[in-house]
């Protein structure tokens, strides 16, 4: 990872020399795959599993409707709870159901667009990667994109998926209208004038207010951006963070555990011609970072010195291309993740506490810690509602234990007023959400009105909304 491309390519050889010996050799390559659940249960129902492998279910029925009419009929008759699934990239139990698992994979692509206003209507099952290419074909782009673009449009917006940039809201912040199928099987159009309260709740609705079938997006004209990646000390990045996030359209940084270094990544609009992008090497780089942990995890000081030695010779990266090609990245190495969204003024202090806690107690952590900034919006369940937000995301390799996220990281985030990403690990309950979101009780009541029988509520969401 590091330069998002090639920071640790030379590190394996240096670490091998520095950490040679029986302990280092015994650590390399010893981790087995996590135990896999049975492929089917006693009733013969097939396993569903999320991307990282920690959420599972054996739904009684699976459905892939090809139209809104088919979906509406399904909602009225299929065994509940009905849960819509996109790419399964959420780490929380939003999808698992013993009832009906619904995919919108047959409802994808662009429906219409307006060149004059740079708006476009897309089916909810469209993957973000496919949507980027389709919008580029009509001269449009989404103003911002997340780091990973494998999610479906409806799934990404339902959980508050976001990119980074002080003037750029999360994906749902650019929804101007949507269409959904309610728990009664009705098809409703929602925007600021039609079903306005439902619009404010359902554009980030966890799939609890209905299944979103169509989304209208306020996009921007297609443009190129210049992407720059460079390394600098953590202390310098934190001191310069207020200036950095005001100076760049997109800005984020990764702290590299046990190195005192950060990788800063910016994207800014440009008229310069596109350049050749280096081959993606994220998988190899991250595994090299893991090797450094395996070989030198017993000595944080030596681990830090070796990492700094390799980083000192690495050059900055610069590339120019259309933004939809550069903002998202391939992430083949699986992980589990906790992300909290804090008041911007609390971000730096909270991050310093997180780093101190991890480096003081968990030498096994090697995944970079991500810091981003998100503009406010007014969706009822948006973690960014009403405030400029600084986000902190902490990752754990999918083969590693991730209990430290709850034990060390979450208490710090909560103490600083953080709201969790809806799709990422957290232990918050109904009372916590009611305290964090001014319109939470209104959203819960509206949800009951739209879905009085709880057709869309699995066990987790019943706890969130306190439905019996």
From TrEMBL:
Superkingdom of the source species = Bacteria
Q: Which SUPFAM superfamilies match?
A: FAD-binding/transporter-associated domain-like (SSF56176)
Keywords for this entry?
Answer: FAD, Flavoprotein, Oxidoreductase
Q: Kindly indicate whether the keyword Protease belongs to this entry.
A: no
Gene Ontology terms, MF aspect: D-arabinono-1,4-lactone oxidase activity; FAD binding
PROSITE patterns, from UniProt? FAD_PCMH, TAT
- Tell me the organism: Niveispirillum cyanobacteriorum
Q: What is this protein called?
A: Oxidoreductase
Q: Record's Gene Ontology CC terms?
A: membrane
A family per Pfam: FAD_binding_4
Under PANTHER family, the record lists: D-ARABINONO-1,4-LACTONE OXIDASE, L-GULONOLACTONE OXIDASE
């Amino acid at each position: 990872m590091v330069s998002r491309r090639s920071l640790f390519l030379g590190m394996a050889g240096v670490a091998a020399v520095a950490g040679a010996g029986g302990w280092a050799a015994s650590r390399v390559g010893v981790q087995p795959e996590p135990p896999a659940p049975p492929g089917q249960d006693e009733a013969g129902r097939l396993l569903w599993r999320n991307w990282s492998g920690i959420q599972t279910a054996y739904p009684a029925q699976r459905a892939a409707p090809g139209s809104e009419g088919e979906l509406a009929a399904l909602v009225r008759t299929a065994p509940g709870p009905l849960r819509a699934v996109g790419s399964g990239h959420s780490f929380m139990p939003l999808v698992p159901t013993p009832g009906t698992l619904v995919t919108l994979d047959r409802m994808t692509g662009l429906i219409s667009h307006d060149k004059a206003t740079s708006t476009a209507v897309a089916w909810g099952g469209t993957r973000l990667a496919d949507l980027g290419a389709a919008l580029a074909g009509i001269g449009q782009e989404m103003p911002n994109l997340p780091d990973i673009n494998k999610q479906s449009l409806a799934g990404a917006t339902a959980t508050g998926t976001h990119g980074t940039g002080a003037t750029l809201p999360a994906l749902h912040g650019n929804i101007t209208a949507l269409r959904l199928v309610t728990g009664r099987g009705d098809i409703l159009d929602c925007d600021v004038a039609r079903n306005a309260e439902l619009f404010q709740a359902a554009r980030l609705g966890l799939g609890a207010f209905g299944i979103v079938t169509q989304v209208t997006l306020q996009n921007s004209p297609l443009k190129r951006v210049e992407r720059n990646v460079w390394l600098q000390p953590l202390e310098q990045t934190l001191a310069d963070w207020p200036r950095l996030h005001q100076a760049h359209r997109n800005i984020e940084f990764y702290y590299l555990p046990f190195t005192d270094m950060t990788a800063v990544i910016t994207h800014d609009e440009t008229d310069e011609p596109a350049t050749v992008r280096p081959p993606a090497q994220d998988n190899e780089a991250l595994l090299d970072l893991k090797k450094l942990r395996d070989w030198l995890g017993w000595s944080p000081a030596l681990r830090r010195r070796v990492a700094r030695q390799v980083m000192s010779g690495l050059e900055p990266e610069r590339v120019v291309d259309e933004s939809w090609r550069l903002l998202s990245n391939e992430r083949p190495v699986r992980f589990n993740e906790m992300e909290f969204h804090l008041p911007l003024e609390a971000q730096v202090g909270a991050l310093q506490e997180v780093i101190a806690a991890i480096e003081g107690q968990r030498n096994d952590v090697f995944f970079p810690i991500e810091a981003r900034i998100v503009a406010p919006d007014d969706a009822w369940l948006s973690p960014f509602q009403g405030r400029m937000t600084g986000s902190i995301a902490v990752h754990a390799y999918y083969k590693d234990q991730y209990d430290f996220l709850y034990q060390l990281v979450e208490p710090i985030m909560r103490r600083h007023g953080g709201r969790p990403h809806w799709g990422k690990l957290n232990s918050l309950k109904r009372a916590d959400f009611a305290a964090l979101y001014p319109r939470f009780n209104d959203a819960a009541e509206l949800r009951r009105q739209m879905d009085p029988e709880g057709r869309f509520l699995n066990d987790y969401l019943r706890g969130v909304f306190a439905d019996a």
